[in-house]
Specification:
heterodimer, A: 63 residues, mainly alpha, disordered C terminus, B: mainly alpha, two-stranded antiparallel ribbon, globular
Chain lengths: 63, 533
C-alpha cells in the first residue's frame, strides 16, 4: 500500500511524520465514529419521536 | 463551475427530505420545553450526531479551509496539547459543564440571577446577546462569498433592471432557509435535521477531499496525490506547516494556543449554543460523555476540511494569482479565497457537486439555526422579559422568539452588505466570542468559589466587553480605509490578555467586597442527578 511509503522532508525532523500520522489516524477514527453515531442516533431518534409531546419536567424551563 | 441536472435533482430531493422532517416535527412540538430544549429527550448518540452537524457550518468550512491554506496542518500538534487538557477536564471530570447542567438553567443569565443579582443578569444577557449577534453577522456573508467563489459566479447579477451584488442574493437564500427551519419546530427540528446534516456533510467532505487530493496529480491517483499535497505543503511552508510553535511570523505561536484553550474552557459554560445543547441532554453525565467522545473522534472532521485548504496551498502556493489580484482582492481576503478558487479550477464532478451544494446549504442551515435559536431565546428571556410585568403564555413566548429570529436575519443581511474582511474568519469569530468569555469567568468562579461576588463580576464583564470591541472596530476601520496598517498585536493576544485582566479584576474586587454570597454547592446535585434512573 503506497501509504507506507510516504516520503517526508527530513529537514522537518519528526514534526512532519508525527503530524501526518495524527491526521490519518484522526480521520479514520472520525469516519468510523460517524458510522457508529449514525446507527446509534437512529435508535435515539425513535425514542425522541415516541416521547415528543409527552409529560416533561417543566421545572427545568422555569426562569 | 457548471451544475449538472443531476446536481439540481439531488439538491431538490435533499431539500425536500429535510423540509419533510421539519414539517413533521412541527406537528409534534407541543410545548415550550419541546421548542427550546427538545423536551430534554435527546439521548447521547442523537445529541452527538446533531453536535457534528451543528459544528460544521458553512462559515466553519470556509474558515477551516482558510486555515489549512495559511498554516498547513500545524494546528494538529497544538490541538494534541489541547486534547490532553480538555479531554480529562470535560470528558472525564465534567468540569463546569456537569455542574451547569445540574443548575437546570437554560441560560447563563438565568444562573447569574440565581447566584449574583438580577441587574447583573440583565447586563450579561444584553452583552452576551450583542456578542452572539455580532459573531453571527459574519455567517451569511462569509458563506455567500465562499459559495460565490466556489461556483465562479460573477460579482454582480442582473436583476430587476439593475445589477445586484451576487453575495446579497446568496445571503438571502442562506438566511431564508434557516428561517424556514427554525419556524418549523424549534430545537427539536434543529437536533433531528442537524443529525442527518452531520452525516451528509461528513460523507460529502470526505469524498471532496479524496477528489481534491486525487486531482492534484496526473493521472489522478489518491495515494500519489496524498504524497504530492504533503510534499507541496512541506515545500511551501517548511516547518511552519507542521510545527505551530516555530519562530515564524506565519506560525500560530504559543500565545494562540493558550488563548484557544482558555477560550474553549470558558465558552463551555458561557456560550449559549453550547449550553442549550447540554441543557437538552437527559442528565449531567451525558454531557461529559458526549464531550469526551466528540473530543476523541471529532478532530478528524476538521482535518478533512483543512486538507482541502492544504491541497490548494500545495497547488498554488501562497502568492495570489494576478487574475485574482486584478479584481481588487486584498492579501487578507486571498487566504479565504484560495480554497474555493482552487476547487473551481479543478472542477467538481456531477453528483458530488449536488451533494456538495446540499451539504453547504444545510451546513449553513444547521449552524445558523442552532445559533440563531439560542441567541433569540436569550434575547427574549434575558433582554426583554425581565422588563415585563405580565407573565407570558407559551404561545406568546414562542411567537416572540420567532419574531426575534426574523429581526436578526434582517440585521445579518444589512451587516453583510457592508462587511469587509479585516482579519481571518476564525479571528473575527473568536474575538467576538471573547465578549462572552467574560461571563464564562463569572459562571466558573460562581459555581466553584464561594467568595465570588457581584461587584467583581461586573468588573470582569466590563473588561471582557470593552477591550475586544475596541479591537474589532479598529481593525474594521483600518480595513475600510484601505490602509495596509494593522494593529501590532494579534486578535488572539487581545483575547488572552483580556481574559487574564477580567479574571484578576473579579478576584480582587470580590475579595474586597463585603456582600453576602449566594453560593450553593452543586457537587451533590450532580451526583444525585447522575445516580437517578
Amino acid at each position: 500500500m503506497p501509504l507506507a511509503f510516504i516520503k517526508f522532508d527530513e529537514t522537518l525532523g519528526i514534526w512532519s511524520p508525527l503530524t501526518f500520522w495524527v491526521v490519518i489516524v484522526s480521520v479514520i477514527l472520525t469516519l468510523g465514529f460517524t458510522v457508529v453515531v449514525f446507527i446509534g442516533g437512529i435508535g435515539d431518534l425513535k425514542f425522541l419521536l415516541r416521547s415528543l409531546g409527552s409529560t416533561t419536567d417543566e421545572s427545568d424551563t422555569e426562569h | 463551475m457548471s451544475i449538472a441536472p443531476i446536481d439540481w435533482f439531488i439538491l431538490g430531493v435533499g431539500f425536500a427530505f429535510f423540509l419533510g422532517w421539519a414539517i413533521y416535527l412541527n406537528s409534534r412540538t407541543r410545548n415550550v420545553a419541546d421548542y427550546l430544549v427538545s423536551g430534554r429527550k435527546i439521548r447521547m448518540w442523537l445529541g452527538m450526531g446533531a453536535g457534528i452537524g451543528g459544528e460544521i457550518g458553512l462559515i466553519s468550512i470556509a474558515a477551516m479551509a482558510e486555515q489549512g491554506y495559511r498554516n498547513g496542518f500545524s494546528f494538529v500538534v497544538g490541538n494534541l496539547f489541547s486534547l490532553a487538557i480538555m479531554m480529562p477536564l470535560f470528558g472525564i471530570f465534567g468540569f463546569g459543564i456537569e455542574r451547569f447542567r445540574a443548575t437546570k438553567c437554560v441560560s447563563v443569565p438565568q444562573y447569574i440571577e440565581m447566584r449574583f443579582s438580577r441587574n447583573l443578569r440583565v447586563l450579561v444577557g444584553i452583552v452576551n446577546c450583542i456578542a452572539g449577534v455580532l459573531q453571527m453577522c459574519i455567517f451569511p456573508i462569509g458563506g455567500a462569498i465562499f459559495v460565490r467563489r466556489l461556483l465562479g459566479l460573477p460579482d454582480g447579477t442582473a436583476m430587476f433592471g439593475t445589477t445586484i451584488p451576487t453575495d446579497w442574493i446568496l445571503m438571502f437564500i442562506l438566511l431564508l432557509c434557516p428561517l424556514i427551519f427554525t419556524t418549523l419546530g424549534g430545537y427539536t427540528t434543529l437536533m433531528v435535521t442537524n443529525f442527518f446534516q452531520g452525516i451528509l456533510v461528513m460523507g460529502t467532505m470526505t469524498w471532496l477531499c479524496v477528489h481534491v487530493f486525487s486531482q492534484s496529480v496526473q493521472p489522478a491517483s489518491f495515494s500519489a496525490g496524498l504524497q504530492h499535497v504533503w510534499s507541496g505543503m512541506e515545500e511551501k511552508l517548511k516547518m511552519a506547516g507542521v510545527n505551530p510553535f516555530v519562530s515564524d511570523p506565519n506560525a500560530y505561536g504559543i500565545q494562540f494556543f493558550i488563548f484557544l484553550n482558555v477560550m474553549t474552557i470558558l465558552l463551555q459554560f458561557s456560550y449559549g449554543p453550547y449550553l442549550q445543547q447540554y441543557a437538552s441532554m437527559d442528565k449531567p453525565r451525558t454531557v461529559s460523555r458526549s464531550y469526551l467522545l466528540s473530543a476523541i473522534f471529532g478532530f478528524g472532521r476538521s482535518l478533512i476540511i483543512f486538507g482541502i485548504g492544504v491541497a490548494a496551498l500545495a497547488a498554488m502556493g501562497l502568492t495570489m494569482p494576478d487574475a485574482v489580484a486584478a479584481k481588487g482582492v486584498t492579501a487578507t481576503e486571498w487566504a479565504s479565497y484560495a480554497a474555493p478558487y482552487y476547487l473551481a479550477q479543478i472542477g467538481v464532478p456531477a453528483v458530488l457537486m449536488g451533494l456538495l451544494l446540499l451539504s453547504l446549504l444545510f451546513a449553513d442551515v444547521a449552524v445558523t439555526d442552532k445559533y440563531i435559536l439560542s441567541w433569540s431565546t436569550s434575547i427574549v428571556n434575558d433582554c426583554i422579559y425581565p422588563f415585563r410585568k405580565r407573565e407570558v403564555t407559551p404561545v406568546e413566548h414562542i411567537r416572540a422568539i420567532r419574531i426575534t429570529i426574523l429581526v436578526l436575519c434582517v440585521i445579518f443581511f444589512i451587516f453583510g452588505m457592508t462587511y469587509k474582511p479585516g482579519m481571518t474568519i476564525w479571528s473575527f469569530m473568536w474575538l467576538t466570542a471573547n465578549l462572552i468569555g467574560g461571563s464564562g469567568i463569572v459562571v466558573l468562579l460562581g459555581m466553584y468559589w464561594r467568595g465570588a461576588k457581584t461587584v467583581g463580576a461586573y468588573a470582569c464583564v466590563a473588561i471582557c466587553v470593552l477591550v475586544p470591541i475596541a479591537d474589532v472596530i479598529t481593525r474594521q476601520v483600518l480595513a475600510h480605509s484601505g490602509s495596509t496598517k494593522t494593529l501590532p498585536w494579534t486578535p488572539e493576544q487581545t483575547g488572552l490578555y483580556t481574559y487574564l485582566a477580567g479574571a484578576a479584576a473579579m478576584i480582587v474586587l470580590s475579595l474586597m467586597s463585603g456582600e453576602k454570597s449566594k453560593y450553593w454547592d452543586l457537587g451533590q446535585t450532580v451526583r444525585d442527578m447522575n445516580n437517578a434512573a
